[in-house]
Specification:
By secondary structure, the chain is an alpha/beta fold. It folds into 2 domains: 218 residues, TIM Barrel (Alpha-Beta Barrel), CATH 3.20.20; 79 residues, no CATH class. It contains 14 helices and 8 strands. Strand 2, helix 3 and strand 3 form a beta-alpha-beta unit. Helix 3 packs parallel to helix 4 and helix 7 packs across helix 8. The longest helix is centred in the middle third of the chain and has 24 residues. This is DNA modification/repair radical SAM protein. Keywords: Iron, Iron-sulfur, Metal-binding, S-adenosyl-L-methionine. Its cofactor is [4Fe-4S] cluster.
Length: 407
């Protein structure tokens, strides 16, 4: 239990543990145990509402690397612990039988060597699948410095694999993680992407072809540990999606750590910055924005505004694109109206086939009509000069809220 407390706490900084996109499997036929969907999946929720349905821990927090931003770095003074592969298997099965979890997220510090550690991570997944018939979700955090064939083997047993790029720029990686190599990380991600593509092609041709990382691969970037701007982070994320077909890019706001290196900032960045980067990521992935358009929402220093979301910031900067007629505009333009999400836009497209929509009709599809009014035209509403108002941004910016120290 002491080791579990240490290694589970050390794993909390890794955000890339979502379980979407995996193959649907269950053990209702009586063979094996576990499931990725359907009956028998119980999610535990923390008091703040976070879903904690995956057993998330490190194999060990011993590490031969000395990354400045990492709490498990070689020079850190803290309690160290390690599990054997058999112990992690036992923990996973015990937690699942108690309905605490639906799967396993396993990462590790690097002990002895990258390849030796990678072999142990793979052994955990292999034993769960082969020896215990575990059909639940497995996410392995792979080590790019390990031998390529080991990194590739991880996908044979895991639903999702991930390799962290760590920092948005190569300069930042060189300065804050001197033991890591940007080229090596890129090569490992490229090999995984090729293996995933090859496996999907083989599966289309042959039903007996082995599955390989059906949940794809993901990565994570630390935000605020170096001087990279939001525009640089958006550019890097767009390149990762395009080059490696990633399922997700996760952003993790830098958090000051004990006995921190002098090269790190003394304060963490605002958590709202992380939130705005996720919103910009959504704009590229689901709303049809090109990376350069998302960057246009940033200011001269390349930073996204914290007080308003990037979609609204873009709309205020390109007011000539508005207002949009909800009864005539194509889907691509409706998706650019601040306050309209994917479901609302689809509902508008469906409803306007039957009749002309009013402002009240659109208001029923959104949380607040205030943000929408300047940017759209309905059967009974036209914003006239409102879209050109000099104080429009101030009107749409949420008022500052006084926080309470002992709330």
């Amino acid at each position: 239990m002491e080791r579990l407390a240490i290694l589970a706490d050390a794993a909390k900084y890794d955000a890339s543990c979502a379980s979407s996109g995996t193959t649907r499997r269950n053990s209702r036929d009586g063979k094996g145990l576990g499931s990725t969907t359907g009956m028998g999946i119980c999610h535990a929720y923390a008091p703040d509402g976070r879903c904690i349905s995956l057993l998330k821990l490190l194999l060990t927090n011993h590490c031969i690397f000395d990354c400045h931003y990492c709490v498990n770095r070689k020079s850190a003074n803290g309690p160290r612990a390690a599990f054997t592969p058999d112990e992690v298997v036992e923990l996973t099965l015990a937690f699942y039988r108690r309905n605490y979890i639906e799967g396993l997220f396993l990462s590790s510090g690097i002990r002895k060597s990258s390849s030796a550690t990678m072999e142990q991570l793979i052994e955990v997944a292999r034993k769960l699948r082969q020896e215990h018939g575990f059909a639940g979700y497995i996410h392995l955090k792979t080590i790019p410095e390990a031998e390529p064939e080991l990194v590739a083997r991880a996908g044979l047993w895991a639903d999702r694999v991930s390799i962290n790029v760590e920092l948005p720029t190569d300069d930042g990686l060189f300065r804050l993680a001197p033991d890591k190599n940007a080229g090596q990380i890129a090569d490992a991600m490229g090999q995984l992407a090729d293996a995933i593509t090859d496996a999907r092609d083989a599966k289309r041709r042959f039903k007996s072809a082995p599955r390989f990382a059906p949940g794809g691969q993901s990565t994570q970037m630390i935000v605020g540990a170096d001087a990279a701007s939001d525009s640089q982070i958006i550019t890097r994320a767009a390149g990762l999606y395009g080059d490696y077909g990633l399922r997700r890019v996760y952003y993790s706001a830098f958090s000051p750590i004990p006995q921190a290196s002098a090269v790190l900032p003394l304060q963490r960045p605002p958590l709202m910055r992380e939130h705005r980067l996720y919103q910009s990521d959504w704009l590229m992935r689901f709303y049809g924005y090109a990376p350069e358009e998302v960057r246009q929402a940033a200011d001269e220093s390349g930073m996204l505004p914290l007080e308003i979301d990037p979609k609204l910031a873009w709309a205020l900067r390109f007011r000539e694109q508005f207002p949009v007629d909800v009864n005539r505009a194509p889907k691509e333009m409706l998706l650019r109206v601040p306050g309209l999400g994917l479901r609302a836009v689809q509902a508008i497209l469906n409803a306007r086939r039957q009749r002309r929509l009013t402002l009240a009709d659109v208001g029923r599809l959104t949380v607040s009509i205030k943000k929408l009014r300047p940017f759209l035209v309905t059967a009974d509403w036209r914003p006239t000069a409102l879209i050109d108002a000099a104080d429009l941004r101030a009107r749409l910016t949420p008022p500052p809220r006084q926080l309470e120290l002992f709330a």
